[in-house]
UniProtKB/TrEMBL annotation:
Gene3D superfamilies: Transcriptional coactivator/pterin dehydratase (3.30.1360.20)
Family listed: Belongs to the pterin-4-alpha-carbinolamine dehydratase family.
Gene Ontology biological process terms from the UniProt entry: tetrahydrobiopterin biosynthetic process
Taxonomic source organism: Aquilegia coerulea (Rocky mountain columbine)
Protein keywords: Lyase, Signal
EC number: 4.2.1.96
Signal peptide limits: 1-22
Protein name per Swiss-Prot or TrEMBL: 4a-hydroxytetrahydrobiopterin dehydratase
Amino acid sequence: MITTCLFFFFSCTLHLMDDLSSKKCIPCDSKDIRAMTDEAAHTLKPKVPGWDLVTDGSILKLRRSWKVKSFTKGLEFFQVIAEVAEAEGHHPDLHLVGWNNVKLDIWTHSVSALTENDFILAAKINALDVQHLLRRTN
């Protein structure tokens, strides 16, 4: 019985971790917001393919880059991201470098660290259909 309960708990926990894109970000001014450990961030990182964990100063962040078809496609890309960010109440740092290099940094400014919100937002961004804005890679 105990083995079954533990297995059920473990299975449910893994299922919840796999489905970050269906979760909702909690408000960043909530008393429930907590910085995660580096170990926890490395554990969640495989759930957001394409994103890297980077240290910027002393802050661990999620970062991802794309090449867009044009400068205006980069701005369209940001608009698509902005809609998700506004819906979640959690906003990435957006960078358009040169005419077609888009970079996003995600971290929770209120705690100067990564939280589950960051991984939720990254998963939601991964689920977006933005292929029409991106350059093809050969």
